[in-house]
Amino acid sequence: MNGILVIAHAPLASALRQCVLHVFPDAQRVVEALDVPPDQPPEVTLAQARALMATHGQTDTLVLTDLIGATPCNVAAQLGDGVHTHVVTGVNLPMLLRAVTYRHEPIATLVARATAGGTQGVMSLAPAVPCPPSSVTG
């Protein structure tokens, strides 16, 4: 099984992890979160990320991060080797839920499924049609 590490601006990583554990309570040992405070040096974040990856004991890890070019992403990029550790940016809840759902698949397949989940979870909804006043009972 693959490990999943979310590295994002505080408190997004922990919030996403909590949402996922609401749906998948059995994923506690699979999904790790690293919140990056605004004043934390990147080398401290990198050391924390490496420690989290070492403690979960998975051979392969999907690292999800929030914003390309920002500190969490820059740290995540240093973790990725393209073989056992893959990094995907633009993390959102649909992406993370898809990743947890398919966590048992090979890492390359997991990357594709997570990316698809993230993009398919973004759409424009038509405005809701309000009920006519006569149909509302009260």
Strand content: 15-25%
Could you give a short account of the major beta sheet?
A: 4 strands, parallel
- Taking the alpha carbons of the first and last residues, their distance comes to 52 Å
**Cα gyration radius (Å):** 17 Å
- Structure class: alpha/beta
In terms of per-residue confidence, which ranges show pLDDT below 50 for 5 or more consecutive residues? Answer: none
Figure out the total of helices: 5
Task: Describe the model.
This protein has 138 residues and is α/β, with parallel strands linked by helices. 43% of the residues lie in helices and 17% in strands. The protein has helices spanning 12-23, 42-56, 71-79, 93-101, 107-120; strands at 3-9, 31-36, 61-65, 85-89. The longest helix is centred in the middle third of the chain and has 15 residues, at 42-56. It starts with a strand and ends in an 18-residue tail after the last helix. The relative contact order is 0.18. The mean pLDDT is 94.
List keywords for this structure.
5 helices; four-stranded parallel β-sheet; 138 residues; alpha/beta
Brief synopsis:
By secondary structure, the chain is an alpha/beta fold. The chain has 5 helices and 4 strands. The chain is globular and about 60 Å long.
Question: Topology of this protein?
Answer:
Blueprint: E1 3-9, H1 12-23, E2 31-36, H2 42-56, E3 61-65, H3 71-79, E4 85-89, H4 93-101, H5 107-120
Parallel strand pairs: 1-2, 1-3, 3-4
Helix pairs in contact: 1-4, 2-3, 4-5
